[in-house]
């Protein structure tokens, strides 16, 4: 009933190929975007700077990882490394290029990450699956190592920590969490729409063909070299932009070891929990992996307060989180996005079941 | 669609949990009769550094409770705390910082996350939020310059003084600075900002004294050090200044050193990797290891003994330590001293701003922190901490504090203090100059005007 398509006719190719063919989806998307834009007026600094900003940024990174892993089927474990490239590239562009606009610096740092991504994507032409994942691990270690090793990247800071410069766009300085949130939101929305369009267009079909069976794809005339490296480049671009935002809009002071293998794994889990090969899943998965531990922490602290030993509470939180992930993967291995899809299908028939 | 069925079945449970949560949150704003001062506790109770986190934050919480029970708070102001788990993760700690920033109508005064990356993660925020960043012996070293960093306090020491003190100690053992020429010292460190933090001072001294300095990093969490210790053996190192974190890494260092036959009495541990837990993890191989201490362990100090009496003995059950035997250990005592700093700063702030018996705000608390003074022996005795920490006094310009340490040696079961007095760098002025030079460089890069400091 909520998703009744009756009466919605598409009479032109333009209508048929639009991004949200259903009126309900268009309406829903508009409402979500409106809420996203207006939420800073209702949310306090904690919500904006500690929940929403990192959530959007990690969603973007998960989206990058999803392009590579979900759409193109190339297992990779280096996303935090590409984030580090983005973060440090952005810092250096602003430091060394006088009066470079912030947005340009972010895009350029994404491109830097993309180039590094192409280099580390080269092994994908020879190996695949878990072997490739192990090969991409090298990027993780190599990038963090080289950022640590060469002082130039950090402007010779003795401790190896960079302080992100101010975000200045068109002469306006973005200081408050609210303003930073809008900057992040704008970039994430543009890139997410771009990803959605890529995924449903010929580019995405190429990726999926390679994912499903690369030999068949090659026989049909797809260039494996081009498709795979393209996926690596675009994925790294997203991770790089995410990393730049992570440094500038969220943490402000970063050291290379903030981008550890641990973060790469968490991004991987976001994609798996959210749903492989879905745009929406990246957002949902990032929300789950990032916000659930915080939610559990607040929940347990408010339920048990100081009556139960805090070490026990902290340990229980981790156990509960782990169990939730296991349960979730048992009951819905296709991720959160699949849950939403099923809900949509049920809502279409509601209230009459089969 | 099994998940939806499960969800449906569990719906009542979820609703109940939600109701419980609402009930819990609604009932928290207690009808406060007594004025309260709120302190955040950025705890670290799980993960590789949990031994440190439980000890230090146990000490902090115990002292806050002790002041409430024993003295009814600070001039009648009750101390309350709120805890948030950072897991020693910079991103999580920023979330905790933001979450604990406000509690009811009170704003937090102070942030003390006990981790160099965690301190770095908020160092750009504290001035804008009017929050004191207390990085007691850790964190950004050049923040000891109060002209550039008015809101950051390192009391009682920092990493550069610590490494200079280690080299000073080695020099004394070797029989003078002129004997140091050509000696090989390995700085074996965890490969993070924390591990690299002492290097600028160390390189400078190595150059001045003609030491052959070798820097060997270990990738975190540092449970694999075989090749590094073989390298140390190959280089025929005379001393190793070990800069690690977590019982796992420290224990691995000691067992691996034993395996390659490197004498443990030539290893000097850093304050944050050298506690009972770290030594026990090294087993019998840990015997004779040297450790730098900025706060001395033990229960012989009147304050620690009294805390144990009030909170633990006779099953009082008011203590925060899960294992009461850890009262008096290094981490615990350091946590207590950190909390003594908070409380003394609060007391100072009340006095300076004529707010005795009232809660203070961030700016007032900052002034109180800057007025910390442990040079008065009578006051130290009154607090029951005489001898436990070096006498020092903060000022507008000097946010480091003492910069002096004791050296301890592990005898297999506990630490023995091996230095007679608190010792610092051979040339403290040189270290101070390095700090101010680095801070000024930072100020210039970030367009910070230096605060005008009389002293």
TrEMBL record, chain A:
<dbReference type="InterPro" id="IPR043428">
    <property type="entry name" value="LivM-like"/>
</dbReference>
<feature type="transmembrane region" description="Helical">
    <location>
        <begin position="129"/>
        <end position="147"/>
    </location>
</feature>
<feature type="transmembrane region" description="Helical">
    <location>
        <begin position="229"/>
        <end position="251"/>
    </location>
</feature>
<protein>
    <submittedName>
        <fullName>Branched-chain amino acid ABC transporter permease</fullName>
    </submittedName>
</protein>
<dbReference type="InterPro" id="IPR001851">
    <property type="entry name" value="ABC_transp_permease"/>
</dbReference>
<feature type="transmembrane region" description="Helical">
    <location>
        <begin position="319"/>
        <end position="340"/>
    </location>
</feature>
<feature type="transmembrane region" description="Helical">
    <location>
        <begin position="75"/>
        <end position="94"/>
    </location>
</feature>
<feature type="transmembrane region" description="Helical">
    <location>
        <begin position="181"/>
        <end position="199"/>
    </location>
</feature>
<keyword id="KW-0472">Membrane</keyword>
<feature type="transmembrane region" description="Helical">
    <location>
        <begin position="100"/>
        <end position="122"/>
    </location>
</feature>
<dbReference type="GO" id="GO:0005886">
    <property type="term" value="C:plasma membrane"/>
</dbReference>
<dbReference type="Pfam" id="PF02653">
    <property type="entry name" value="BPD_transp_2"/>
</dbReference>
<keyword id="KW-1003">Cell membrane</keyword>
<dbReference type="GO" id="GO:0015658">
    <property type="term" value="F:branched-chain amino acid transmembrane transporter activity"/>
</dbReference>
<feature type="transmembrane region" description="Helical">
    <location>
        <begin position="27"/>
        <end position="46"/>
    </location>
</feature>
<feature type="transmembrane region" description="Helical">
    <location>
        <begin position="257"/>
        <end position="276"/>
    </location>
</feature>
<keyword id="KW-1133">Transmembrane helix</keyword>
<keyword id="KW-0812">Transmembrane</keyword>
TrEMBL record, chain B:
<protein>
    <submittedName>
        <fullName>ABC transporter permease</fullName>
    </submittedName>
</protein>
<dbReference type="InterPro" id="IPR028081">
    <property type="entry name" value="Leu-bd"/>
</dbReference>
<feature type="signal peptide">
    <location>
        <begin position="1"/>
        <end position="32"/>
    </location>
</feature>
<feature type="domain" description="Leucine-binding protein">
    <location>
        <begin position="45"/>
        <end position="412"/>
    </location>
</feature>
<keyword id="KW-0732">Signal</keyword>
<dbReference type="InterPro" id="IPR028082">
    <property type="entry name" value="Peripla_BP_I"/>
</dbReference>
<comment type="similarity">
    <text>Belongs to the leucine-binding protein family.</text>
</comment>
<dbReference type="Pfam" id="PF13458">
    <property type="entry name" value="Peripla_BP_6"/>
</dbReference>
């Amino acid at each position: 009933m909520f998703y009744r398509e009756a009466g919605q006719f598409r009479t032109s190719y333009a209508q048929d190929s639009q991004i949200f063919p259903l009126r309900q989806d268009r309406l829903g998307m508009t409402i979500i975007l409106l809420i996203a834009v207006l939420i800073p007026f209702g949310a306090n600094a904690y919500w904006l700077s500690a929940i929403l900003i990192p959530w959007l940024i990690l969603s973007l990174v998960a989206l990058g990882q999803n392009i590579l892993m979900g759409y193109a089927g190339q297992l990779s474990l280096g996303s935090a490394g590409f984030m580090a490239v983005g973060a440090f590239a952005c810092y250096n562009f602003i430091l060394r290029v006088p009066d470079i606009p912030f947005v340009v610096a972010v895009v350029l740092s994404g491109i830097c990450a993309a180039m590094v991504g192409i280099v580390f994507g080269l092994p994908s032409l020879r190996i695949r699956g878990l072997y490739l994942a192990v090969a991409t691990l090298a990027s993780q270690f190599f990038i963090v190592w080289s950022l640590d090793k060469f002082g130039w990247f950090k402007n010779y800071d003795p401790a190896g920590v960079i302080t992100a410069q101010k975000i200045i766009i068109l002469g306006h300085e973005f200081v408050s969490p609210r303003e930073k949130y809008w900057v992040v939101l704008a970039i994430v929305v543009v890139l997410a729409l771009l990803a959605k369009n890529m995924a449903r267009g010929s580019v995405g079909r190429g990726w999926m063909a390679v994912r499903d069976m690369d030999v068949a794809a090659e026989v049909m005339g797809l260039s494996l070299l081009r498709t795979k490296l393209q996926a690596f480049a675009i994925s790294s671009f997203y991770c790089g932009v995410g990393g730049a935002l992570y440094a500038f809009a969220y943490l402000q002071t970063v050291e290379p070891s903030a981008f550890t293998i641990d973060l790469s794994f968490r991004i991987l889990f976001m994609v798996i929990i959210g749903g492989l090969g879905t745009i929406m899943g990246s957002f949902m998965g990032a929300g789950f992996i990032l916000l659930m531990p915080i939610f559990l922490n607040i929940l347990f602290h408010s339920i048990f307060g100081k009556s139960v030993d805090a070490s026990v509470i902290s340990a229980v939180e981790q156990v509960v989180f782990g169990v939730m992930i296991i349960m979730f993967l048992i009951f819905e291995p296709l991720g959160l996005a699949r849950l939403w899809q099923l809900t949509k299908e049920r809502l279409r028939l509601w209230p009459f079941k089969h | 669609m099994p998940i939806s069925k499960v969800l449906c079945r569990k719906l009542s449970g979820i609703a109940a949990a939600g109701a419980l949560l609402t009930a819990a949150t609604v009932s928290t704003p207690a009808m406060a009769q007594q004025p309260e001062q709120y302190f955040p506790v950025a705890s670290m109770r799980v993960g590789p550094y949990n031994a440190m986190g439980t000890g230090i934050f146990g000490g902090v919480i115990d002292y806050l409770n002790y002041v409430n029970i024993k003295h009814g708070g600070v001039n009648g102001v009750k101390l309350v705390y709120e805890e948030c788990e950072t897991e020693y993760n910079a991103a999580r700690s920023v979330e905790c910082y933001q979450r604990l920033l406000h509690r009811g109508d009170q704003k937090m005064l102070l942030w003390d996350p006990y981790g160099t990356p965690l301190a770095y993660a908020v160092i750009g925020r504290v001035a804008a939020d009017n929050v004191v960043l207390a990085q007691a012996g850790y964190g950004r070293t050049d923040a000891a310059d109060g002209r550039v960093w008015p809101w950051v306090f390192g009391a009682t020491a920092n990493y550069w003084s610590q490494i200079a003190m280690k080299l000073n100690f080695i020099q004394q053992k070797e029989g003078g600075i002129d004997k140091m020429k050509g000696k090989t010292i390995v700085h074996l460190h965890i490969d993070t900002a924390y591990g690299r933090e002492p290097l600028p001072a160390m390189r400078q001294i190595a150059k001045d004294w003609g030491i052959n300095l070798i820097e060997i990093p270990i990738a975190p969490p540092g449970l694999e050090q075989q090749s590094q210790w073989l390298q140390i053996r190959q280089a025929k190192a005379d001393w190793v200044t070990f800069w690690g974190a977590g019982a796992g890494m420290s224990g691995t260092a000691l067992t691996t050193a034993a395996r390659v036959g490197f004498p443990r009495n030539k290893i000097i541990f850093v304050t944050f990797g050298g506690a009972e837990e770290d030594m026990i993890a090294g087993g019998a191989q840990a015997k004779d290891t040297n450790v730098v201490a900025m706060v001395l362990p033990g229960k012989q100090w009147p304050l620690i003994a009294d805390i144990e009496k009030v909170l633990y003995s006779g099953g009082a059950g008011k203590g925060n330590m899960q294992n009461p035997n850890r009262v008096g250990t290094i981490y615990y005592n350091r946590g207590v001293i950190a909390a003594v700093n908070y409380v003394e700063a609060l007391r100072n702030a009340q006095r300076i701003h004529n707010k005795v018996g009232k809660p203070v705000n961030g700016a007032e608390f900052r002034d109180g922190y800057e007025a910390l003074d442990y040079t008065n022996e009578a006051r130290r005795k009154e607090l029951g901490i005489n001898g436990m920490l070096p006498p020092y006094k903060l000022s507008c310009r000097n946010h480091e504090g003492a910069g002096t340490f004791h050296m301890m040696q592990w005898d297999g079961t506990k630490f023995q203090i091996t230095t007679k007095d608190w010792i610092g760098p051979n040339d403290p002025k040189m270290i101070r100059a390095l700090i101010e030079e680095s801070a000024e460089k930072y100020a210039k890069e970030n367009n910070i005007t230096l605060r005008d400091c009389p002293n």
